[in-house]
Write a structure and sequence with these properties.
- It is a single chain.
- This protein has about 450 residues and is mostly helical.
- It is built from 22 helices and no strands.
- The protein is globular and about 65 Å long.
- Keywords: Membrane, Transmembrane, Transmembrane helix.
- It holds the Pfam family MatC_N.
- It comes from Crystallibacter crystallopoietes.
């Protein structure tokens, strides 16, 4: 009994230490998994390493390589500028358009890649009299929705980890749940932060400008803001991107897609269609392998871009998820997961236990890594469904979405970026409202999702 408790305590302590010290969670988790497995559980090193999730590695590498090519050859930027140029002076549509674009970009491997829309959307919101909270939440909801696509990080980690522990969670089901949940949140934000007022505006002159800048015919937008950049750097990038937008006013000659970009668009469409068709006919599509197959076509068309994209593979996330799941495998071997199962069964209320774990996921994710939280909590939620009283897919889907929708908290990377890309005098208000919104979802999200997903499976 003592060894499982010690192992669980070490797992929590290591997670907290890595978060506070801002060190790579995967490195410390993998090393600790080896130490706990050998010295506490009496395992062989080969058995410890066997817990490393190779299938998730293939998924992450294949997906991030595929979409790194799409970014490197300019296809993603061309799609963004094409879509924004079609909005015209209809400011009421801008939050919806940015939700869709952000979700699409987030679906391309990593949700944080969708932050490229923040330094474009927030200045445009100011220019057209849109509440920056509405635009920020539209982008945040798009990140969360797209992040659970079968080709993106949150989705891969959630359903990949669920499959590794024997829970049948359909990737498209998970994505559909996340999409609906975030559309509901977007609708609430639209009502709360002036969206209905935008619908009543008839003329572009009411926005303080004559028309939305025409983005056609320009080179791709400047580089994306990354997680490690500070507020000053993000603000500088925002200024650069707005300048690019302003410089494009009056240009009307569209630049044609290159041969490599056309091939990329076809491959992206082919990937989506392949995943949907294989799921419809009852097959379990290996998205990682499909991404490698289509990426092969793209890199043969443009070898230089394909070579460049190799360095953009998200090895950091592979290591983080791998380290956490390897440690969880040691916890399973030592009996710590069974101990949690006994505790859950003694509680006598699996619904309450499911609600509690979703609240924990949301609360911690508001301050720490959402990906790490998903990789850690999904396997530990298995005891809740061991007796069959509630559906495993419902618990895991609720946990995943609850851990993601709080990312607009200003204490997370997403929320901090939203704050960084508004004017300095607006930051106190945005920070205050984002804090209220994010922390309220720590409770509202679990109650709503457990009530609509988990509760019906118990009836």
């Amino acid at each position: 009994m003592l060894e499982p408790i010690v192992a669980l305590s070490l797992f929590v302590a290591i997670f907290a230490l890595a978060t506070v010290r801002k060190v790579h969670l995967g490195v410390i988790m993998f090393a600790s998994a080896a130490g706990v497995g050998i010295w506490l559980a009496g395992m062989e090193m080969d058995d410890v390493i066997a817990g490393f999730p190779v299938s998730i590695l293939v998924l992450l590498v294949g997906v991030t390589y595929f979409f790194a090519i799409a970014q490197a050859n300019g296809t993603v930027d061309r799609i963004i500028t094409f879509a924004i140029s079609r909005v015209g002076d209809r400011a009421a549509l801008l939050p919806l358009v940015f939700f869709g674009l952000t979700a699409g970009i987030a679906a391309m491997g990593s949700p944080l890649a969708g932050l490229v829309m923040t330094p474009i959307g927030m200045p445009l919101a100011k220019k057209y009299g849109i509440d920056r909270m509405l635009m920020g939440l539209a982008i945040g909801c798009g990140l969360s929705a797209g992040g659970f696509a079968p080709t993106s990080l949150f989705g891969i980690v959630t359903y990949g980890t669920a499959h590794s522990v024997g829970i049948d969670l359909n990737p498209l089901t998970l994505f559909s749940i996340a999409l609906v949940a975030n559309l509901v949140l977007l609708l609430a934000a639209y009502v709360m932060f002036g969206g209905l007022g935008l619908l009543r505006r008839r003329h572009a002159g009411q926005f303080g400008d004559s028309r939305l800048p025409n983005l056609r015919g320009k080179a791709p937008l400047p580089g994306h803001p990354f997680e490690r950049e500070g507020f000053a750097e993000r603000s500088r990038r925002a200024a650069q991107q707005v300048q690019v937008i302003d410089d494009t006013v009056g240009e009307t000659t569209p630049e044609r897609f290159t041969w490599a970009q056309r091939t990329t668009v076809l491959c992206m469409a082919g990937l989506v269609v392949s995943v949907i068709l294989l799921a419809i006919i009852g097959l379990d599509p290996d998205i990682g392998i499909l991404c490698f197959a289509f990426a092969t076509v793209m890199t043969l068309v443009d070898p230089k871009t394909g070579k460049t994209a190799v360095s953009k593979i998200d090895w950091s996330t592979v290591l983080m998820v791998g380290g956490i799941i390897t440690f969880v495998g040691v916890l399973q071997e030592i009996g710590a997961v069974d101990l949690l199962g006994e505790a859950a069964s003694q509680a006598g209320a699996p619904l309450v236990a499911a609600l509690c774990i979703c609240i924990i996921g949301g609360l911690v994710s508001a301050f720490a890594s959402t990906t790490g939280m998903l990789a850690a909590l999904v396997p530990l939620a298995i005891p809740l469904v061991a007796d069959g009283n509630i559906a495993g897919w419902a618990v895991i889907a609720a946990l995943g979405v609850c851990s993601s929708i709080v990312d607009v908290s200003p204490f997370s990377t997403v929320g901090a970026t939203l704050v960084a890309t508004v004017d300095e005098e607006e930051r106190p208000r945005i920070t205050k409202v984002l804090t209220r919104w994010g922390l309220s979802l720590v409770v509202v999200g679990p109650v709503a999702l457990v009530g609509t997903l988990v509760l019906p499976t118990m009836l």
